[in-house]
Amino acid sequence: MLEGVQTKLLIGGAWVDGQAGATILVENPYDGSILAHVAEAREADVDLAVEAATAAFPAWRAMAAHDRGRLLLKLADRIEADTQNLARLEAMDTGHPIRDCLALDVPRTVLCFRYFGGMADKMEGSVVPVDAGFLNYVEREPIGVVGAIVPWNFPLMFTSWKLGPALAAGNTVVIKPSEITPLSTLRIGELAQEVGFPPGVLNIVTGYGHTAGQRIAEHPGIGKVAFTGSTNTGRRIVEASAGNLKKVQLELGGKGPNIVFPDADLAAAVGGAAFAIFHNQGQACIAGSRLMLHEDIAEAFLERFVALAKSVRLGDPLDPNTEMGPLTSRLHQQRVLDFVGVARDEGGEVLCGGDTLAGDAGCFVQPTIVRAQPHHRVAQEEVFGPFVTVLTFRDDEEALSIANGTAYGLGAGLWTRDITRAHRFARQVHAGMVWINCYKRVHPGSPFGGVGQSGYGREMGFEAMREYTQPKSVWVNVDAALPPFYRR
Length: 488
Ligand code: NAD
Fold this sequence. Notes:
By secondary structure, the chain is an alpha/beta fold. It folds into 2 domains: 9-251 and 458-473, Aldehyde Dehydrogenase, Chain A, domain 1, CATH 3.40.605; 257-436, Aldehyde Dehydrogenase, Chain A, domain 2, CATH 3.40.309.10. It has helices at 43-62, 65-81, 83-94, 98-119, 155-168, 183-194, 209-218, 231-241, 266-278, 298-311, 330-345, 377-380, 396-403, 419-428, 461-467, and strands spanning 9-11, 14-16, 23-27, 34-39, 126-128, 134-142, 145-149, 172-176, 202-204, 224-228, 247-251, 257-260, 290-294, 349-352, 368-371, 387-393, 411-415, 433-436, 455-456, 469-477. The strands form 5 sheets. It has a 7-stranded mixed sheet with strand order 14-15-16-13-12-17-18, sandwiched between helices. Strands 9-8-7-10-11-19 form a 6-stranded mixed sheet, sandwiched between helices. Strands 5-6-20 form a 3-stranded antiparallel sheet. The longest helix has 22 residues, at 98-119. The structure holds nicotinamide-adenine-dinucleotide (NAD). The site of nicotinamide-adenine-dinucleotide has 31 residues, from helix 7 and helix 8.
């Protein structure tokens, strides 16, 4: 058990047990040790959290935007000061290598809160040139209580992606982390309290999806639900939200094509393709999980790529030399390994990996490279692990048709030195984000989200601020002569 970590629910500014008194076991996926028993929030606890968020909303909304921003900026500073602690917590709870937590997860979380802290007083309304004699202005209002549901793959970062814009825009929030990885979100709650967020503005309910999550999605007092997770759960959220027709934002799965053209810088593309699929053990919605190689360079590329994959250092997430940790749960490890069997059954060729780590009890899966055909399940379904499906193509037309041949449309990568081809593809590929000669770049200013079954709505930047507000159009008769209708 970890000493001193927060395990209770944050409701109305107080840390409380769940009303049913139940707890959720949180395990370390590296060694199976118990990290914590956190309070389990059920429907009644969600209801209390929504009540608290509703009560806190009028004052939070009325607060000057720069004061809300200042609290977010203070939170960013406080998280930065807590970097070592948060990185360790995230590494133990998720299996992310500490190296990545220190270089990516925590700094990106800080950057996100800082960006939206600065954004709070930058969101402007507009004045619309309407009929003579009238003034029409449009204000952006907060929605009210936002329900946020986040998955287990980047729990700390996704907490900031939801809280940053929602709070900056003047909403109050009830957030539910994944039952598998709740610890870093709870720590953010503690730090938010330390820097002075008013009670009820941020509420944290740690609970299961089918109970607490479902209640958030259907709650009549919640004006918007922002969800990151699987496409199937996304569908359930949409159905549950229909009762009060709440606004829904969905960041769902992906099957990212990462396309290497024959004129690419191969060394850069090999490294980029490895980062695209092996970072965070491939547990990323934007992972480059379909590696598409032009047939002229496929063999040369694969020789280097397979050698690189075999050299990836798997091990204890807390060891600074570890490049890849265990998957985040035992169940998920099995799911990824099952896909190796699926690939073989369909006639795919496993070029490396495909197994656990010999002699290690952690939830490891070796970096796995599988050659398959575009219609195979492993080229269509999200595996969400260190598992990349290699496909080859003959020309640009075929590349585009394969790239656009899944139900998803989240991220896509292109490796080429030909700028015409790069921009043409960027325009034609079905994706919310395209990376040219790089992969998986994100920034709080740049819109993040997908098309098709990868969801709708966008996180980050001004787009996120629009998602977390609604326009109100106000008409003023300055000196217009009203039409003669109904005059007596
Ligand atoms: P999941 O859908 O199982 O769970 C996500 C969250 O939803 C968890 O907090 C879970 O408790 C909750 N949940 C589960 N059932 C629910 C229900 N019926 N009602 C309300 N909430 C419910 O997903 P996961 O396995 O935790 O995460 C992996 C998935 O997330 C992958 O498919 C991945 O692609 C996706 N993802 C998408 C993005 C993106 O931005 N597009 C980012 C990361 C992960």
